[in-house]
């Protein structure tokens, strides 16, 4: 399999995205409003013509095409190691490929990206940077990670706000198999701290359709025991619970004012993301 960096380059090639606009402000070409001069403001920013008319020191405030600061978050929970069949990627491989492609796309826009890899702790953290080397650093960290049997993803995701020093776009790649109340608490914390969130829910098609044919061992989540069953025996019940879970997860994101995109590992990552990203980045 090609290296992660090469896979990301292949996916991003041909994807064209215009500069995003932001409500954050800075010195640029689009005038927004005046505000009073304050100690610490650049002296050269004073509008002297307005001062001549009003005898007040004022500064022009502009709407700026500000630099995007993105934090790419990878969930390394054990469930991400799932792969129903060859040649599909595991959910973890698919998730890291998506994040690597986004890192490259952000780099090509001249924006800043960082990385947080989370399992039973925040295992790796790279603050947002627009350095050209950030893409390669991101790929190196992503490539070295394996799914962890011990995970507290939602709890550690909640600690991420402590590391983010400025408002950021937080892109989370996970299957989001978490307790709903824990995840909602984390999403609300990120919203309260001024961050925006995109959830990339990575699922294997077998998890969505439950089209398994061979008998196998299934985990009873209430009893914590493995039970030998035929998929036909539990398909209807599984699909009913899965749809309920998906509906609740989507509501959590909507209630927090964020967006959730469900990706299947039998789809090209960039094909699945391209229409959305063309609007977003």
Report low-confidence residues grouped into runs of 5 or more.
16-29
**Anisotropy-based shape:** elongated
Share of β-strand residues: 15-25%
Instruction: Give the CATH level 1 class of the largest domain.
Output: Alpha Beta
Mean pLDDT across all residues, rounded? 84
Largest sheet features: 6 strands, mixed
- The figure for the number of domains is 2
**Ends apart, CA distance between termini:** 29 Å
Over the alpha carbons, how many angstroms does the gyration radius reach? Answer: 22 Å
CATH architecture group name of the largest domain:
3-Layer(aba) Sandwich
Assign the CATH topology of the largest domain.
Rossmann fold
Q: How many strands appear in the DSSP assignment?
A: 10
What is the share of helical residues? Answer: 25-40%
Number of helices: 10
Order of helices and strands: HEHEEHEEHHHEHEHEEHEH
Provide the structure class.
alpha/beta
Question: Order of strands in the sheet with the most strands?
Answer: 5-4-3-6-7-10
The CATH homology group name of the largest domain: von Willebrand factor, type A domain
InterPro entries: DUF58, vWFA_dom_sf
Protein name: DUF58 domain-containing protein
Organism: Puniceicoccus vermicola
Pfam family, one: DUF58
């Amino acid at each position: 399999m090609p290296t992660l960096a090469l896979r990301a380059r292949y996916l991003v090639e041909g994807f064209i995205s215009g500069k995003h606009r932001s409500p954050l402000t800075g010195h640029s070409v689009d005038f927004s409003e005046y505000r009073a001069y304050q100690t610490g403001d650049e002296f050269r920013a004073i509008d002297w013509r307005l001062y001549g008319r009003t005898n007040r020191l004022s500064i022009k405030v502009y709407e700026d095409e500000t630099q995007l600061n993105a934090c790419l978050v990878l969930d390394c929970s054990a469930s991400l190691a799932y792969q129903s069949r060859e040649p599909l990627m595991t959910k973890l491989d698919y998730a890291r490929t998506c994040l690597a492609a986004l890192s490259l796309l952000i780099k090509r826009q001249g924006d800043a990206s960082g990385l947080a890899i989370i399992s039973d702790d925040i295992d790796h953290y790279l603050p947002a940077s627009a350095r050209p080397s950030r893409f390669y650093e991101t790929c190196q960290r992503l490539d070295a990670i394996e799914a962890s049997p011990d995970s507290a993803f939602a709890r550690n995701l909640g600690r991420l706000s402590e590391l983010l020093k400025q408002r950021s776009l937080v892109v989370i790649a996970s299957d989001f198999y978490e307790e709903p109340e824990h995840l909602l608490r984390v999403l609300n914390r990120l919203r309260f701290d001024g961050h925006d969130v995109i959830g990339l829910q990575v699922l294997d098609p077998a998890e969505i359709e439950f089209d398994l044919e061979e008998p196998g061992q299934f985990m009873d989540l209430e009893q914590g025991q493995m039970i030998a069953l035929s998929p036909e025996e539990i398909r209807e019940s599984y699909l009913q619970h899965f749809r309920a879970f998906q509906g609740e997860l989507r509501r959590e994101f909507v209630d927090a004012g964020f967006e959730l995109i469900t990706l299947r590992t039998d789809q090209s990552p960039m094909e699945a993301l391209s229409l959305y990203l063309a609007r977003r980045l």
